[in-house]
Amino acid sequence: MEDKISQQRLRFFFGRNGYLRFPDAKRQQQEGHSKYKKGSEVRLVAYDETELTEIRNLLQQMGFKLANSHAKAKQHIQPIYGKQAVERFCEMVGKQLETEE
To answer: How many domains in the chain?
Structure first.
């Protein structure tokens, strides 16, 4: 039951203003992985420290590895890094992956 509530809250945060980032396959092929190190990423946006704490707690409850959050334009960004983690998160919140690969 708690997992379902956690999923619903994460779905809310992602649906409100979260987004996905994917590596540029052409650029990665041209520059090589040693120079172009971008990977797949989910970004959840918190309006304040309270929301950031809730997002981090929810992610931890759902078994995601916590990355360092950072500030961006008076908001807090909580990333989720890694292709498998991004795929798992998208499946959990019901988001269809649309990559350029």
So the answer is: 1
